[in-house]
Amino acid sequence: MAEFIEGIIKVWNGYGSAFLDGALNTLIVSFVGTAVGCLIGFGVGIVQTIPIDRKDPAWKRVLLTIVNLILKGYVELFRGTPMIVQSVFIYYGVIIVFDYKMDIYFAALLIVSINTGAYMAETVRGGILSIDPGQTEGAKAIGMNHVQTMINVIIPQAFRNIIPQIGNNFIINIKDTSVLSVIGFADLFFQHKSAAGALYLFFHSASIVMVIYLVMTVTASFLLRLLEKKLDGDDNYDLATTDTLAHTSGMYTYHPKEKTLEDFK
Amino acid sequence: MSENIIEIQHLEKNFGSHKVLSDIDFSVKKGDVTTIIGVSGSGKSTLLRCINVLENPSGGKILFHGEDIDAKGFSLNDYRAKVGMVFQSFNLFSNMTVLQNCMVGQIKVLGRKKAEAEEKARYFLEKVGMLPYINAKPKQLSGGQKQRVAIARALAMEPEVLLFDEPTSALDPQMVGEVLAVMRQLASEGLTMIVVTHEMAFARDVSSRVVFMKDGVIWEQGTPEDIFSNPQREETKDFLSRFIN
């Protein structure tokens, strides 16, 4: 046991700051990648749910069909292949085809974003379809067009409903960005490989890295729960006045603060 | 004689091969309170939804101030802003507060300034007795309260006609009263309304015209006295006898 702790200390003293740097890179790429992926997902999801009306002109219907096919291809391609292969494919592909070497940080962000985008597209589509059609009708009935309805009414509700899924993706990204070490991105796993390789303390280094990953994911899921709670608000509405038209007994949770001596001073 | 706001000519609606509405003709003048009565499935709600183009009519014409709403260049969204709708299931925007529900259409569709929209929203919320709840979310309200907010939301657009699609059918009897009270007041103030309802007392006492529908056809229309005291058709008598007794 003492030997194990000694090993841990040795790894930490030598590579502690590198681990923290790597963890920071992991967090940044996961966070930005998830955020950009969400934007892509919303874009794709919104386009895919544009209703095609029989009165629409032919060019609009054809255009929508083509765009939807392309988007579907994108989703299937990036959902259906491993991110580790995608990273190699894109990073070296760009070098060979465009004769251009991407900044490694940019490459990492790009890969995580489009990969997450493919997953989020399906999530967003499901989220939009799950909203009660009455909400769309309510918006149409006061004269809102499709874009206004989406932005003001449907997307905010769909967004609330898919937060758990976004959180899920974020946590998956924290872990799965470890595959980016294959193109040399200096994330937490990359630092572990360097440390373990230099010191031959694989188990000790992995223990530290395990804990760091776990701390990041648990914190992330805690913060997401907090956000969900905040967005949901209270189930009851505190009201001091009375509604003269409704019989309201037993409907509210109005508890006037009991006066204490302090209040009269 | 005042001009017809809405005129419906030979309106038809099919869902697949199922004919829901056939040869519907009627018109609405300013200040009219038209109630449409009939059994469930008679096409009343579909008719109302066709007027607001939530369903596309399969045939016939709807004229708004003499203009065909199906014509090229006719803005459906502008039309809908002038023809409000109150739904059976309220359809309040659940991501917004009561006040925001009543403001969003004014700001986004009518292009009103925020301050003006808020003033209007407050005015109409007060009218329906919901001013104390401006910061509540729909899920915090009872059914009757939601419906009153929905009415305020429609009124805030200051429509020329307001359509009510069975506004009290999803409410328990106690809440029906509060919503009908609001609707009676609006009628007395001269708002043009088309109301699909099962509330016969409302149809008899408040409306200026009653339309009786059965199997997607208008069987009889006239003043409440005509329809309730002196119905001409067997079908109308039969329908009313079940409600009056």
Structural class by secondary-structure content of chain B: alpha/beta
Count of helical regions of chain B: 9
Into which percent range does the helicity of residues of chain B fall?
Answer: 25-40%
Order of helices and strands of chain A: HHHHHHHH
Which strand-content bin applies to the residues of chain A?
Answer: under 5%
Task: Enumerate how many helices of chain A there are, as a single number.
Answer: 8
Main beta sheet strand tally, sense and closure of chain A: none
Low-confidence parts of chain B: none
Write down the overall geometry of chain B: globular
Distance between the termini of chain A: 64 Å
Give the integer mean of the pLDDT values of chain B.
91
Which class best fits the helix and strand makeup of chain A?
Answer: mainly alpha
Strand ordering within the main sheet of chain B: 6-7-8-3-9-10
Low-confidence stretches of chain A: 247-256
Radius of gyration of chain A: 26 Å
What is the oligomeric state here?
A: heterodimer
General shape of chain A:
flat
Average pLDDT level of chain A: 86
SSE order of chain B: EEEHEEHEHHHEHEHEEHH
Largest interface: A-B, 34 and 48 residues
Structure write-up:
- The complex is a heterodimer of chains A (265) and B (245).
- Chain A contains eight helices and no strands.
- Chain A has helices at residues 2-48, 58-79, 83-98, 104-129, 133-141, 146-176, 188-199, 202-232.
- In chain A, helix 1 (2-48) packs across helix 8 (202-232) and helix 2 (58-79) crosses helix 4 (104-129).
- Chain A starts with a helix and ends in a 33-residue tail after the last helix.
- Mean pLDDT of chain A is 86; it is low at 247-256.
- By secondary structure, chain B is an alpha/beta fold.
- Chain B has nine helices and ten strands.
- Chain B is globular.
- The interface between A and B is large, with 34 and 48 residues.
